[in-house]
Amino acid sequence: MTLPLTSAQLTPIIDEVAAASLAHWGLEGAGLTLINHSENWTYRVTPAGAARPVILRVHRAGYHSLNGIRSELAWMRALQADAGVKTPQAIPARDGNDIQSIAHPALSEQRHCVLFEFIDGIEPPQDNLIAPFRQLGEVTARCHNHSETWVRPAFFERLSWDFDHAVGTSPNWGDWRHGPDCTQGRARLIQRAVDLLAQRLQRFGQARNRYGYIHADFRLANLLLHEGDVRVIDFDDSGLGWFLYDAATAVSFFEDRADVPDLMEAWKEGYRRQRVLPSEDENEIWTFILLRRLTLFAWMGSHSETDLARTEGPGYSVGTCDLAERYLTKFG
Length: 332
What we know:
Layout: H1 7-21, E1 31-37, E2 41-46, E3 54-58, H2 66-83, E4 99-102, E5 111-117, H3 130-149, E6 159-160, H4 163-166, H5 184-204, E7 211-214, E8 223-226, E9 229-232, E10 239-242, H6 243-249, H7 260-271, H8 279-282, H9 285-302, H10 307-312, H11 316-331
């Protein structure tokens, strides 16, 4: 039996896949710099001469199908064209297709590659988030308005972020019980919160105005501020889920920070500029913040080798338990 490649073994292979893919866009010989690897491999591509850089994404295996990626790119185009939400657009290759599948002798399956335009902007500063969260709420509402009415293409296929696929029986990112430092005592506490989550989400339901196609990862790293506008990148986790899950993703990795209630108030203010937020929905925001936290807790357990898990993992179990205890006190 062949053992799976480690991340260290896989990275130079993916570098070769990335370099080989460039010819499909007529970018042979362009500079290639890895700028991020948490799930996919993301590269900055610098063409010869003074041409503007572009961004190449090499997809990991086993997460999205070809139609799944096509669905993501279709919504990104529609959001920009129909809802005025600035997103990085896919650049068609020489054959007219957005997605190129590249083989490598060391890999058992081809890797899907997509080239995106480079869009300007900076990540919101951690110490001054009220105004960006107000803007984010407004942008999120525009995304949800569009999602509710968008006619999905016939090939549409994306992940679900319902209870079962977040923290239930078929989790996309693994079992939360395998999260960092999840002792038996902590697992018992978290399980009580998970049971309460299940009850409240069942009661909340999946009506069309509450559940649809969402970005599912509006964390700060995926937002760009530019000349007063909030731009959205990285739709890789977009899928079917509750609209309020998008609100929760905005505070990813700092859900238990003291200023989160104020940030959520700013987010709601912006959201209501574009879309109705009923009080009964507003009252469940902490349900979705905890759901997101536990989904990330599971991700850290199944992706312990990543830089993100290594930097955020220490202490994340304690913070997760604190959040679970507060949730049980509030709703239990």
